[in-house]
């Protein structure tokens, strides 16, 4: 078997509700040179059967079934089975964008990084928000620089978790970096500390590539502050030793107070809250495409997909540079048409009026991305700065990614829209379809509940009617017996007599139902 470039590890325990979404997002990656290691940690639901079905359908998937031993032991076992040059982790409740592995590997290999750390999406119900740190750092960092950044917010999920990072397996194996199986809290944070001690460089990827789903029982949900501090004391020794190794003795003494700030820095992932700035509805965070099922293949649909895919690729460039998408599109136009610029053509390309386009050019000039010289009032000459050339390099990646789609299938036009639809739909269609399915399921449940309520009301009315009849008969019998001289009330001889005898009572009871 040829060595895969990436080993993707997923520990699974009773994850039947989310595991399909997780594995589908892995198998739908644009980056294909992966092995997927799914380790069942003694699940008692349908997770084992689901995993086996994936292994039978895709040769890249390998499944192991083990006795329940905890997530740390499960991850350690998977690390011992991995063959890839790089290691990527996922949790079974979460999922990744279709370009996640590609972006991580590209960042690691092009920058010579020993670890890549990426932004992520924080999902709470239907709300999602982008989370990350080090926005000002856009280049390769030394271990010391990374440690200094981490000290500013040591308990942030961004630094502590393992699922937003890419690791070199040779470092893991050379130094036997593993999860501490004795701990049931913060073991991934300690793994990261141990790993970074042996890493020389770290690259911050400013693209959110991971969907982290809030689950009950996590540390950020706990209200017992004293318990959190107590657990942190058990981890402080690792944290303190890490900085003793990173800094020299004098520097450590000078920064000791900053190191101990870890004790009062409570773990946080800054939950996505609908009323907070930056929070979106799930599905609005990416460039999407909406095409109804059953639409016939046609060149208009192909063009629609092509535009959406290019926008999605360019949107990644916008994320990494903090530029609006329209300005990245301007840079793409300028990159492939250097020299003097026809403002009419550029404005038409961007799809906005000339004054707005000229204003964007001025902003790019002031931001240091390009140098603009105005030959005339309507004809600028543009040169890329060093900062702008880095963006142009990223734009070339977007171009290559788009063109690579056509290598997946026959390049005849009738197949092009299929290829693009597949690439875009790996996340989009699944998201839209799952939303529609959820809506249909919710509507079906509402109807079923309404039917059940109606039936229950009918039965209750029938029981009340019968009870009223019995009470009426009993009252009339008692009244007849007490009068003595009156003739006792006869029992009704059939159903008609019973209804007649209690009709007034039933009407009165029915009015109260």
TrEMBL record:
Gene3D superfamilies: Spore Coat Polysaccharide Biosynthesis Protein SpsA, Chain A, Winged helix-like DNA-binding domain superfamily/Winged helix DNA-binding domain
This protein's UniProt keywords: Glycosyltransferase, Transferase
Basic and acidic residues composition bias: residue spans: 435-475
Disordered: annotated segments: 435-513
GO molecular function terms noted in the UniProt entry: glycosyltransferase activity
Pfam families: Glycos_transf_2 (PF00535)
Ranges of residues in domain Glycosyltransferase 2-like: 7-173
Family matches, as InterPro entries: Glyco_trans_2-like (IPR001173), Nucleotide-diphossugar_trans (IPR029044), WH-like_DNA-bd_sf (IPR036388), WH_DNA-bd_sf (IPR036390)
Record field: compositional bias (Low complexity): 495-506
Name of the molecule in the record: Glycosyltransferase
Organism: Pseudoscardovia radai
Lineage: Bacteria, Bacillati, Actinomycetota, Actinomycetes, Bifidobacteriales
């Amino acid at each position: 078997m040829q060595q895969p470039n990436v080993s993707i590890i997923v520990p699974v325990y009773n994850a039947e509700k989310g595991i399909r979404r997780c594995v589908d997002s892995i198998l739908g990656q644009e980056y294909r040179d992966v092995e997927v290691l799914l380790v069942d940690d003694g699940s008692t639901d349908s997770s084992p059967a689901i995993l086996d079905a994936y292994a039978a359908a895709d040769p890249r998937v390998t499944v192991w079934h083990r006795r329940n031993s905890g997530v740390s032991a499960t991850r350690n076992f998977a690390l011992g089975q991995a063959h890839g040059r790089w290691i990527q982790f996922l949790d079974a409740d979460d999922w990744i964008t279709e370009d996640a592995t590609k972006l991580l590997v590209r960042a690691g290999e092009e920058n010579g990084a020993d670890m890549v750390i990426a932004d992520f999406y924080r999902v709470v119900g239907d709300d999602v928000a982008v989370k990350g740190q080090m926005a000002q750092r856009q280049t390769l960092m030394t271990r010391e620089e990374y440690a200094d950044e981490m000290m500013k917010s040591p308990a942030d999920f961004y630094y502590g978790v393992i699922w937003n990072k890419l690791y070199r397996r040779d470092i893991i194996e050379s130094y036997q970096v593993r999860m501490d199986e004795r701990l049931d809290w913060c073991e991934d944070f300690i793994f990261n500390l141990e790993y970074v001690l042996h890493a020389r460089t770290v690259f911050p990827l400013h693209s959110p590539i991971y969907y982290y789903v809030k689950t009950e029982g996590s540390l950020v949900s706990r209200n017992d502050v004293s318990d959190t501090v107590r657990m942190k004391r058990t981890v402080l020794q690792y944290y303190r030793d890490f900085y003793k190794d990173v800094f020299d003795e004098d520097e450590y003494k000078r920064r000791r107070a900053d190191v101990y700030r870890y004790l009062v820095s409570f773990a946080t992932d800054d939950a996505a809250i609908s009323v907070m700035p930056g929070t979106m509805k799930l599905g609005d965070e990416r460039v999407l495409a909406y095409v109804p099922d059953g639409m016939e293949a046609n060149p208009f649909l192909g063009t629609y997909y092509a535009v959406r895919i290019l926008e999605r690729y360019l949107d990644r460039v916008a994320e990494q540079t903090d530029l609006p998408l329209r300005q990245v599109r301007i840079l793409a136009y300028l990159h492939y048409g250097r020299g003097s610029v026809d403002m009419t053509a550029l404005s038409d390309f961007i799809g906005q009026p000339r004054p707005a386009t000229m204003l964007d050019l001025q902003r790019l000039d002031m931001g240091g991305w390009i140098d603009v010289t105005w030959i005339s009032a309507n004809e600028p000459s543009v040169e890329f700065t060093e900062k702008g050339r880095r963006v142009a390099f990223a734009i070339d990646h977007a171009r290559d990614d788009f063109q690579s789609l056509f290598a997946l299938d026959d390049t005849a036009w009738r197949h092009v829209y299929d290829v693009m639809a597949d690439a875009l739909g790996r996340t989009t269609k699944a998201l839209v379809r799952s939303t529609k399915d959820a809506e249909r399921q919710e509507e079906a449940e509402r109807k079923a509940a309404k039917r059940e309520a109606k039936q229950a009301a009918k039965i209750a009315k029938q029981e009340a009617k019968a009870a009223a009849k019995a009470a009426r008969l009993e009252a009339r019998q008692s009244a007849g017996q007490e009068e003595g001289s009156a003739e006792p009330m006869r029992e009704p001889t059939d159903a008609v007599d019973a209804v007649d005898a209690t009709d007034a009572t039933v009407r009165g009871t029915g009015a109260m139902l």
